[in-house]
């Protein structure tokens, strides 16, 4: 074994660190473009935790373990270490593909790769410790002084494979409370276990020396490791048994472990406050960790396992603790790898560029971001904090350049037997520089908050408009408003005339809401559990507010602000910013041709796929699309089309649908073809969440599926519906088989979402087959004389009935709602002219075309046919 430490970074270390630098750039790019990337929150979290944190731990746990043990690997064994690091990155890419494609099986493959590599890494570290002991024993020495910290790395690597397994369970999708329990276990094993144990092992050796202490006690390491591991185990036990109190006890035990770790640091920090980016960033990270753990225990003690409540601490743990810890440790370690002496000093000097400004901006910005501020203020604060983090990259590069310059100078000086010139001293007093950085940080924070306030005060009315010219009293009325159950509570607020009104709005529902006032102020979108503050200003008249998410206002999410003694007649009509889309409704030209590039949705019904289990993924999106020639609207869809995928099977088949919500509000799905508990399967899921819906086909027929989120008619009419066909036994063969689903559209302005008021009135602008008005008029079906045709028909609604008729033909077979009404060659030679369906009813008709010609099929409720429920069949 080579026990002589290199004085310069070797090529293996640079190659092993390359993935961290690459993922840093990817993280920045994804952060900038997150609004256009599906599931971006999950992507950002996992690029950071695996791309940056896991790669860094793999690299530095090996490097530091060798230093702690005084036992270094020979060069021929380095490729295995590099191979492990690159294998983790392959696993991460596979996981990303699986999550973005909603293929949990692919996600599982990536998780198995990462878990296997970390298990291998744990074994390699344990073997390294064993080799160190044998070598030292041969020299008559006991174990290395810092061997105890190396065992932290072993324990850390052992926990991540289990955390990856729970990540796969989350990707697969389970109902609450299992999903929330798996989330707690996943976070406990990966953040508190994998990251937390590795961090504790590093800091117990490095941080005291970074603060200038030469004596480092080793007695605290075994009890600290035991408390941390036991704490993680108890948290997982409580999570998997649905016992939040047990999990909270585990958090307490884990916190005790960290208090054992940090206790020796406190007197040192009191005597010698942080004076560099590394020491200040690590100190701030530890404060965030202790605060986050305390809050975590409180959340677990005060309520059930709920993913939305648990996820509130993600920013605390990742941006507050993990991010600052990672950059602080790297700021110290990277210069030390450049060669020591003046080389390291030069590198650290650059690493400390504007260190106080960066630390203040990150921590003050994060604290402000956690406050109930408007969404625009949070956006601008996030941008500033992200800038402070990003500055680490150019500073790191400049640090390496400075260190290399000193090294080259030393090499040149050694060639001519001259000592290199000392690095120039810092000019001026250090205190004024730090004071300048503090002022600059406060100025930057104030500036971005001002910009956020200016951007967030949108709308044509200002806060002063609420005053109605009344003289201010100088008093402030503060009111807590909760959004829950499609209501604001309280729904009426009475304010003394002239008082300034401040609203603290908390979303206590299980779906996304917001509050928009007619005066222009708004909370921005609030996820479950989030809060925001709205400063209404001086109030001298009655004001209306509402939730601007489509349909929620119509369901009763309206807030009334009244002035004492005012009958409300001085109020404005509530049509301010954020309300229903304004402007004239879009118009439809039913005579307009969609153009030569138009492709109608294929109405042909494919045979049922082989097998007895059919698995599908439905991705919810909200995006503009054309619904008639020249008429666009924002559609809410399953898999990107107005009307979701058509499913087909036979009696006894099992369907498994993974629903992934990549929209901006809560959505769900209800399959009429299944007989399952609505509580578990049809529950709303918020943006970024998923669920798995399973049902068995117990009866034949054509069945509707649709979004079941309230207001249900709005979600359904906006495109969130589809058909499931379960074939009756011995279905007769035909020459062609088609499926048509009738739906409706209620137009707002061109490109806008559906008009919820029109849905409630029940007067559609368009009635369509398969999601596009008159598409089969523009692109007719084709048949030959003598062809026997089967047409499956479903009325999705939500309001209009359907009388399905084919002009010029008659039906000799009619099947409706699971039974035949008419069969071919019946004794009475009976026939049928129309299949009558109410919303959520379906069936099929069969006919044979006897002569060539152009046959029109339509809803014989004629004004619905004229509104787009029409198509043609050309028979030759």
Give a written overview of the molecule.
There is one protein chain. The protein is an alpha+beta fold and 876 residues long. It has five domains: 155 residues, no CATH class; 162 residues, no CATH class; 94 residues, no CATH class; 101 residues, Sandwich (Immunoglobulin-like), CATH 2.60.40; 263 residues, Sandwich (Immunoglobulin-like), CATH 2.60.40.420. It contains 22 helices and 27 strands. Helix 2 crosses helix 6, helix 7 runs antiparallel to helix 8 and helix 12 runs parallel beside helix 16. The N terminus is likely disordered.
What's the SSE blueprint?
Blueprint: H1 11-32, H2 40-69, H3 78-100, H4 104-138, H5 147-172, H6 178-210, H7 221-240, H8 244-262, H9 265-271, H10 277-301, H11 307-310, H12 314-336, H13 342-351, H14 355-369, H15 375-390, H16 392-415, H17 430-456, E1 476-484, E2 487-489, E3 492-495, E4 500-507, E5 516-517, E6 531-538, E7 543-546, E8 558-563, E9 613-628, E10 631-638, E11 647-650, E12 654-661, E13 670-671, H18 678-681, E14 690-696, E15 701-706, H19 712-717, E16 721-727, E17 736-745, H20 756-761, E18 766-769, H21 775-778, E19 779-783, E20 788-797, E21 802-806, E22 813-816, E23 819-822, E24 835-837, E25 842-848, E26 853-859, H22 862-866, E27 870-875
Parallel strand pairs: 1-4, 3-8, 9-12, 11-16, 17-20, 19-27
Antiparallel strand pairs: 1-2, 4-6, 5-7, 7-8, 9-10, 12-14, 13-15, 15-16, 17-18, 20-25, 21-24, 21-26, 22-23, 22-25, 26-27
Helix pairs in contact: 1-2, 1-3, 2-3, 2-4, 2-5, 2-6, 2-12, 3-4, 4-5, 5-6, 5-7, 6-7, 6-8, 6-12, 7-8, 8-10, 10-12, 10-14, 12-13, 12-16, 13-16, 14-15, 14-17, 15-17
């Amino acid at each position: 074994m080579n026990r002589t430490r290199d004085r310069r970074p070797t090529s293996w270390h640079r190659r092993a660190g390359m993935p961290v630098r690459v993922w840093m750039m990817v993280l920045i790019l994804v952060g900038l473009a997150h609004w256009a990337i599906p599931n971006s929150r999950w992507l950002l979290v996992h690029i950071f935790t695996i791309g940056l944190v896991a790669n860094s731990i793999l690299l530095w746990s090996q490097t530091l373990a060798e230093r702690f043990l005084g036992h270094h690997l020979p060069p021929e064994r380095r490729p295995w270490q590099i191979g492990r690091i690159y294998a983790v990155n392959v696993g991460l890419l596979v996981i990303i593909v699986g999550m973005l494609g909603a293929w949990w099986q692919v996600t599982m493959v990536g998780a198995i790769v990462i878990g296997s590599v970390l298990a291998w890494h744990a074994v390699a570290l344990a073997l390294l410790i064993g080799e160190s002991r044998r070598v030292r024993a041969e020299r008559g020495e006991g174990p290395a002084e810092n061997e105890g910290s190396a065992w932290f790395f072993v324990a850390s690597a052992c926990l991540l494979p289990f955390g990856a397994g729970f990540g796969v369970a989350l990707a697969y999708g389970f109902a609450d409370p299992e999903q929330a329990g798996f989330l707690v276990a996943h976070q406990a094993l990966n953040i508190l276990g994998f990251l937390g144990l590795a961090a504790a092992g590093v800091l117990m050796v490095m941080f005291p020396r970074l603060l200038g202490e030469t004596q480092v006690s080793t007695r605290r390491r075994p009890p600290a490791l035991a408390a941390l591991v036991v704490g993680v185990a108890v948290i997982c036990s409580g999570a998997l048994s649905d016992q939040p109190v047990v999990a909270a006890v585990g958090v307490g035990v884990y916190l005790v472990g960290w208090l054992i770790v940090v206790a020796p640091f406190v007197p040192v920090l009191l005597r010698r406050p942080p004076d560099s980016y590394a020491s200040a960033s690590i100190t701030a990270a530890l404060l965030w960790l202790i605060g986050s753990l305390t809050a975590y225990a409180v959340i677990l003690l005060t309520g059930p396992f709920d993913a939305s409540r648990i996820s509130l601490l993600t920013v605390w743990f990742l941006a507050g603790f993990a991010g600052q810890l990672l950059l602080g440790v790297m700021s110290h370690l990277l210069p030390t790898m450049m060669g020591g002496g003046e080389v390291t000093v030069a590198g650290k000097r650059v690493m400390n560029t504007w260190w106080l400004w960066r630390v203040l901006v990150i921590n003050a910005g994060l604290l402000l971001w956690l406050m109930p501020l408007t969404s625009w203020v949070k956006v601008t604060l996030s941008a500033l904090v992200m800038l402070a983090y990003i500055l680490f990259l150019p500073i790191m590069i400049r640090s390496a350049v400075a260190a290399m310059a000193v090294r080259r100078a030393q090499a040149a000086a050694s060639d001519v037997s001259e000592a290199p010139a000392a690095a120039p001293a810092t000019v001026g007093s250090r205190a004024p520089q730090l004071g300048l950085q503090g002022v600059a940080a406060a100025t930057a924070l104030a500036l971005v908050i001002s910009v956020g306030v200016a951007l967030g005060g949108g709308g044509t009315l200002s806060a002063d408009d609420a005053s109605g010219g009344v003289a201010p009293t100088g008093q402030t009325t503060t009111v807590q408003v909760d959004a829950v159950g499609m209501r604001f509570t309280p729904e009426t607020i009475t304010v003394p005339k002239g008082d300034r009104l401040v609203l603290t709005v908390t979303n206590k529902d299980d779906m996304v809401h917001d509050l928009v006032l007619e005066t222009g102020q708004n909370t921005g979108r609030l996820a479950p559990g989030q809060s925001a503050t709205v400063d209404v200003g001086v109030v001298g008249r009655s004001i209306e507010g509402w939730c601007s998410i489509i349909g929620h206002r119509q369901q009763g999410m309206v807030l009334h602000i009244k002035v004492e003694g005012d009958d409300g007649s001085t109020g404005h009509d509530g049509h301010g910013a954020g309300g229903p889309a304004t402007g004239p409704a879009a118009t439809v030209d039913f005579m307009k041709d969609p153009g030569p590039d138009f492709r109608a949705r294929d109405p042909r019904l494919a045979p049922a796929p082989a097998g007895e289990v059919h698995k599908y993924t439905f991705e919810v999106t909200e995006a503009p699309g054309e619904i008639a020639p020249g008429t666009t609207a924002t559609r809410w869809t399953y898999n990107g089309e107005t009307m979701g995928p058509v499913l087909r099977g036979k009696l006894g088949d099992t369907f498994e649908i993974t629903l992934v919500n990549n929209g901006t509000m809560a959505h769900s799905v209800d399959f009429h073809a299944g007989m399952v508990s609505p509580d578990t399967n049809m529950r709303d899921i918020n943006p970024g969440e998923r669920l798995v819906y399973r049902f068995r086909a117990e009866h034949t027929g054509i069945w509707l599926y649709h979004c079941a989120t309230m207001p249900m008619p709005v979600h359904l009419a906006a495109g969130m519906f589809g058909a499931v066909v379960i074939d009756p036994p011995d279905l007769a063969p035909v020459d062609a088989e088609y499926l048509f689903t009738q739906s409706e559209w209620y137009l707002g302005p061109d490109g806008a979402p559906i008009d919820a008021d029109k849905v409630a009135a029940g007067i559609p602008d368009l009635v369509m087959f398969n999601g596009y008005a008159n598409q089969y008029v523009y692109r007719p079906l084709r048949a030959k004389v003598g062809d026997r045709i089967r047409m499956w028909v479903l009325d999705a609604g939500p309001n209009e009935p359907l009388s399905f008729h084919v002009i010029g033909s008659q039906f000799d077979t009619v099947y409706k709602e699971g039974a035949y009404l008419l069969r071919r060659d019946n004794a009475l030679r009976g026939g049928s002219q129309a299949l009558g369906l109410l919303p959520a009813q379906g069936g099929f008709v069969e006919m044979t075309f006897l002569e060539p010609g152009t046959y029109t099929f339509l809803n014989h409720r004629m004004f619905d046919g004229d509104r787009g429920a029409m198509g043609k069949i050309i028979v030759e």
